[in-house]
Amino acid sequence: MTTTTPTTPTTPTTTPTTTASTATTDASDPEQVIGEARERIDELDARIIRLVRERMEVSSRIQRTRIAAGGRRVHLSREMEVLSRFRAELGGPGTTLAMTLLELSRGRV
Ligand SMILES: O=C(O)C(=O)C[C@]1(C(=O)O)C=C[C@@H](O)C=C1
């Protein structure tokens, strides 16, 4: 007859690996999830603002060049292209966003 020695449960010696989606969040703690997601949003907003400022500089260069060559500040057909691209990608609010970007870039018309 063979006897078996009772085994005691052991704790894992390695830490469970985390996946990308759980590495920085603990779904059981809503405050932590929200706090971390807001940090990410703040970073994204800072990048968006930097990009908007960069767009304004590039747009200003185009406008100054056109005006120096005898043209006008506003180029309507180009604005229509910009507006339709934002609308195609983001719908009606995309148009509003594009209009705001254009106003920031060339002032009010
Ligand atoms: O693309 C141009 O010709 C620009 O002057 C740039 C820009 C823009 O910010 O997108 C700004 C003013 C014009 O009315 C059209 C577009």
UniProtKB/TrEMBL annotation:
<dbReference type="InterPro" id="IPR002701">
    <property type="entry name" value="CM_II_prokaryot"/>
</dbReference>
<dbReference type="GO" id="GO:0004106">
    <property type="term" value="F:chorismate mutase activity"/>
</dbReference>
<dbReference type="InterPro" id="IPR010958">
    <property type="entry name" value="Chorismate_mutase_highGC-bac"/>
</dbReference>
<dbReference type="InterPro" id="IPR036263">
    <property type="entry name" value="Chorismate_II_sf"/>
</dbReference>
<feature type="domain" description="Chorismate mutase">
    <location>
        <begin position="28"/>
        <end position="109"/>
    </location>
</feature>
<feature type="region of interest" description="Disordered">
    <location>
        <begin position="1"/>
        <end position="34"/>
    </location>
</feature>
<protein>
    <submittedName>
        <fullName>Chorismate mutase</fullName>
        <ecNumber>5.4.99.5</ecNumber>
    </submittedName>
</protein>
<keyword id="KW-0413">Isomerase</keyword>
<dbReference type="GO" id="GO:0046417">
    <property type="term" value="P:chorismate metabolic process"/>
</dbReference>
<feature type="compositionally biased region" description="Low complexity">
    <location>
        <begin position="1"/>
        <end position="27"/>
    </location>
</feature>
<dbReference type="InterPro" id="IPR036979">
    <property type="entry name" value="CM_dom_sf"/>
</dbReference>
<dbReference type="Pfam" id="PF01817">
    <property type="entry name" value="CM_2"/>
</dbReference>
